[in-house]
Amino acid sequence: MNKVNIAVLGATGAVGREMLKVLQERRFPINQLKALASARSSGMELPFGDGTITVEEATENSFEGMDIVLGAASNALAKQLAPAIVKAGAVFVDNSSAFRMVDDVPLIVPEINPEDVQKHKGIISNPNCSTIITLTAVAALNRLSPIQTMVASTYQAVSGAGANGLRELEQQVLDYAAGKKPEVNVFPWQIAFNLIPQIGDDSGNGYTSEEMKMQNEGRKIMHLPELNVTCTCVRVPVLRSHSISVTLRTQRKISVAEAREAIAAAPGCRLVDDLAGKVYPMPLDTSDQDTVFVGRIRDDLTDEKGLTLWCCGDQIRKGAATNAIQIAELLLKR
Amino acid sequence: MNKVNIAVLGATGAVGREMLKVLQERRFPINQLKALASARSSGMELPFGDGTITVEEATENSFEGMDIVLGAASNALAKQLAPAIVKAGAVFVDNSSAFRMVDDVPLIVPEINPEDVQKHKGIISNPNCSTIITLTAVAALNRLSPIQTMVASTYQAVSGAGANGLRELEQQVLDYAAGKKPEVNVFPWQIAFNLIPQIGDDSGNGYTSEEMKMQNEGRKIMHLPELNVTCTCVRVPVLRSHSISVTLRTQRKISVAEAREAIAAAPGCRLVDDLAGKVYPMPLDTSDQDTVFVGRIRDDLTDEKGLTLWCCGDQIRKGAATNAIQIAELLLKR
Fold first, then answer.
1. In this complex, do A232 and B296 lie within 8 Å of one another by their Cβ atoms?
2. Which residue of B has its CA nearest to A247?
3. Which positions 8-47 of B are in contact with A (Cβ < 8 Å)?
4. What are the residue boundaries of the structural domains of chain A, listed by start?
5. Do B151 and A247 touch (CB under 8 A)?
6. Do domains A4-127+320-333 and A131-315 have the same CATH topology?
7. Per-residue pLDDT tens digits of chain A, which is 334 residues long
8. In what order do the strands lie in the sheet with A45-48?
9. Which of A129, A231, A233, A269 is catalytic?
């Protein structure tokens, strides 16, 4: 396999740092590696393998000779630099939401729609984290019979707001332990010992932008243009694994036994489903891993063609960094 | 109004202590008050008003002359002592689940089915905490058009496991802050920075006993024998307010505007619903209060006759102690 020149854009953030870690872990065939970030991080040393890599300022001139650019930056920076990346002949695998719903930009979960990678014109989007985790869990069911509707309630970790989100929960807990009033900076309200039922902004129909991603990105990834999803996104005081309670209806009824078997065999999934034995997916068990854990599978009592389940996955890894690098691996295979 | 003789059974627990507090706050017309608990708590002083009350051992002889016994004890103790309470001529308002589904035991949320109190034969049950909070939130919709189905995902505070549950989360957080490994005693797994998607035991159909309460108690309280509920109960690292994400279908479509108006006018509810203004129910805002906060009301995208919403309420108060004392107040009115 030829080694490639790869850049991580936004390398100093929680997802960017994890991308460096995952590239190393998966022994991605790297010729040249660049860690790019804003000017103020230039010169910073980031861990890479047994050593470090020096951060360079990301500019429009950063991408000459690159084969792949992994994006872990803001929507604004992704939009600003995408033309330079494409012009340099690199493929931009972008974790921002900037291009996800653009027609000729593939939106990929490698376990679900790897073939869509071939349609790219220089940009491939990495889906929303909760969407990746939920769809990885339910894709096996969709292969048995198309999913028609999903009602999803999320329990989203603070890592979804990046390294600052992680620090905020940790600091609020330390403040609580010290008897101090917790400071609120990153989230709109205190998150320690609290729940915030808003992630993203009002999208105009009473749903937040984050909530609408589950339907809109789900339609594109699973090739289900008619899929309807009612999603409620809630920030919870958990560090880095997202959990989702999903009730879904398929075209034909899938039995619990059939669902368990399909999910146990599905790529990227692990079935952990023994209620009597107190075995089910939990954030602490799934953190720092790439696998989506699925359990609590049972019949939906409100719909004869429904099933309900609970899934968890690491938001920074499968929800972001690992999924992006899996996409890059698909590019290598071409 | 005549003053009554009232006993609190299980007075030393989180709910029992709150009952004493709520009796005082609501100026319940008390002639004689007894605080009853197990032998090992006998002689203990509990706060009551500006002073204290001495705990007595609960025995079958404790109830002579009592008018009302508020139960905040285990199912086993409720079953053991109920015959003595009834024989003594007192009404047993029981917070345990022991009698909730018994035919001639009314199951009451005073804002919903106060008239059912009249059917009692000595025992009245206080419903499950999540059920009380959810039904208080949606009762106004059910009055507009009968609820046919609900899909509910709960975010339940540790207070649902009593004073020991509260202590366990607090201790685990202090341990974390001190760099120590958290000890697990009350919950099956660590709850700090985690989620546990199991409350209660396996009820045989893949649902837990706690999850089935929402359907079974909901049917009885709302007089909706056909109501179907798919519920997922999840313990979250929050101290004392339960939150519930509910998607429901009514017989006729209720518009969002109509739902908001009805909920704003509903007894026991407060509408807090302005997503753009970051206003929605949150555990920290609803703790230590009797009101159920309701917000995030919007159309269900999966069902033309559906609505989805988010509600929060204090588990120890409206979910247990306050609801029981509201039932006792209904008895006074007779």
1. yes
2. B151
3. none
4. 4-127+320-333, 131-315
5. yes
6. no
7. 589 999 999 999 999 999 999 999 999 999 999 999 999 999 999 999 999 999 999 999 999 999 999 999 999 999 999 999 999 999 999 999 999 999 999 999 999 999 999 999 999 999 999 999 999 999 999 999 999 999 999 999 999 999 999 999 999 999 999 999 999 999 999 999 999 999 999 999 999 999 999 999 999 999 999 999 999 999 999 999 999 999 999 999 999 999 999 999 999 999 999 999 999 999 999 999 999 999 999 999 999 999 999 999 999 999 999 999 999 999 998 7
8. A45-48, A51-57, A30-37, A4-9, A68-71, A91-94, A123-125
9. A129
A288 touches chain B (CB under 8 A): no
Query: To the nearest whole angstrom, how far is the Cα of B285 from the nearest Cα of chain A?
Result: 9
Cα separations in angstroms, A181 against A190, B192, B280 = 10, 19, 22
Query: Phi, psi at residue B150, to the nearest 5°?
Result: -135, 140
DSSP state of A178: T
B window 181-210, beta carbon within 8 A of A: 188-190, 193-198, 201-202, 205-208
Q: Which of A186, A234, A254 should be substituted to probe chain B, the one whose Cβ sees the most B Cβ atoms within 10 Å?
A: A234
At A135, phi and psi to the nearest 5? -70, -35
Q: Does the predicted interface ipTM exceed a cut of 0.90? A: yes
What is the least distance, in Å, from the CA of A235 to any CA of chain B?
11
**What topology is assigned to B4-127+320-333 in CATH?**
Rossmann fold (3.40.50)
Give the 3-state secondary structure of B260-294.
Answer: HHHHHHCCCEEECCEHHHCECCCHHHHCCCCCEEE
The CATH number of the domain covering residues in A131-315: 3.30.360.10
Distance CA B69, CA B78 (A): 11
Q: Is A103 helix (H, G, I), strand (E, B) or coil?
A: coil
